[in-house]
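Supplementary Methods, section 5.1.

A reviewer requested that the exact input to the structure prediction be made available. We therefore reproduce it here, unchanged from the version used in the analyses.
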Amino acid sequence: MLAHCLRTLQEAAGSRCGPLPTRPVLLAWMARHGTLAADPEFQQVFLAQLERGALQLQELADSRGLDPLALDIGDLISWAEAEARTRLSRSSQAPPPG
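The structure derived from this sequence is encoded token-by-token as follows.
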């Protein structure tokens, strides 16, 4: 999901480097895509999803000292693996229930 969000934001910005596109840029990009423009309700849901994903991508980029649009699939995989290891280590440290 986050990879799709990254590629969509890169496409909307017209770049694979630099800051994330602003809301007006995203709205203009959506308006140029007939299927999105034809369904205002879906457009709002999709915009909200992109903005939530953008927050995660910004945090990841900040932690790696990168611009958000410069992230790539390798960065996302590394992040996901680290997150999984952290969750697993927490669950193995928890005492058994009861």
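Helices lie at 2-13, 23-31, 34-37, 40-64, 73-93. These observations are discussed further in the main text.
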